[in-house]
Known about the structure:
Layout: H1 4-11, H2 18-36, H3 45-51, H4 56-70, E1 75-77, H5 78-81, E2 92-94
Amino acid sequence: MSTYSDSANISNPSVNSCSDSVNVFIIQKRAIRILLRLGPWISCREGFKKLDILTVSCLYIYALMLFAVKDINIYRTNSSVHGMNTRQQINYICLW
């Protein structure tokens, strides 16, 4: 079982600064333009889709989702905290 601190090194915004992710995104766009021979003023959005490449922000979200699913035991549902029958009873809350 991994802990939050083990996974945080990959996906924690305080570890990877925002300016670094912006730089990586710019490098990603440059690579897409080179691979698909796109001009400097043409959008790379369709290029990402065509090559099936996730952007840096999508990779971050994906890593967070994988962490949440893999370590589901660190979360509890609202219904386990209190016995009230509410619409949010199946929502998860973090234990730490």
